[in-house]
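BUG: 3D viewer hangs when loading the predicted structure for this chain

Environment: internal workstation, default settings.
Expected: structure renders.
Actual: progress bar stalls at 90%.

Input used:
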Amino acid sequence: MSERQAVLLALKSYYNGVDQTEYDSKNDWKTVTEISKRHKIFPIVFCQYRDAVSALVDEKTFLKMKTEVMSSTVTQITNDIQLFKICEKLDSAGVAYSVCKGAACRAMYSQPDYRISCDEDILVERNDFPDAERVFCEDGYEQIIRNNIETVFVKNTLEIELQKHFIGYFEKFDKINEIIYDGIKSGFYIEYSGKKLRTLPPDCNFLLLSFHFFKHFIRGGIGIRQLMDIVKFTDINKAEIDFDYCFGVLKDISADKLIKTVLKIGNKYFDTDFSVDIGDADAEELLDDIFDSGAYGNSESEREHSGAVTQKMVFNGGGRIKTLKDVILPDKRSVARGAPEVDSDGKLFKYRAKRLVNALTQKNK
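Structure tokens produced before the viewer hung:
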């Protein structure tokens, strides 16, 4: 069993709410730790293997890891309490909103505090956005970012992204954007830690989680935790999700095959039994890419440039000839925003040309 398989086994046990006590000592715990921290799942993996790990490392190292996990889970509990309080104030102010991703995903697990979040996302109905900002300011939150898409607030250790346009201003995504924001108005609640948490209804939430995964995947990669969240959410809500409808929407943005492959991984590694047509995509290839990427994606230049090609075609909906021109010969504005120019030895040019051929011939793969 490889280190990656050890991580997957720990996630599978956590996913199913059972303890994983066996650990193959042939696996390098240091590598398992590195993978887990890169994917922001160390509390999950450590707690699944803690008895075995106590025999693998010295007492000082074990105590340090245990303290780190306890600190992160206490912070998560504290942040959740603070999140509930601000949500109650949004409710009292009559603001239409939905908590997405982080807390809404933690609510699915039997040990939610181990599924940590770096921040929380709250979608707000656009007409209510000024009232929502006022509620946060009156509650002592500090505004650290404000633009035409989101306002980011922070208080103590909790950072909240208050969003009015989750997907961004791309014409190609207008349909899915409006579907998600219609869901905000539904006032859909789930149970979490004995309280009611306002979030999106199943179809809308499935589309949001799918788009979030898709967006990060083509930009730079996405971690295994996000994959587990989609699989878990789909598993719990499969009776309420209209798969024909949702995959029709995802097909319009070229994301359907990717998400079907995610569900295929779920069937193999999390013991799910999704009957939806999951196609013949290579699940192992996607899984390798996810492990290589980490929670925030792979920052290697080739992956970023590859993502730039895909974004030009998918996000902006441009033609293939225009994509060829924009990616290989970016204009001054694109370069100013970070698009790399062709390097002197031609390596980047050759890579982009090769990637472009794939993009032009396999647009929806």
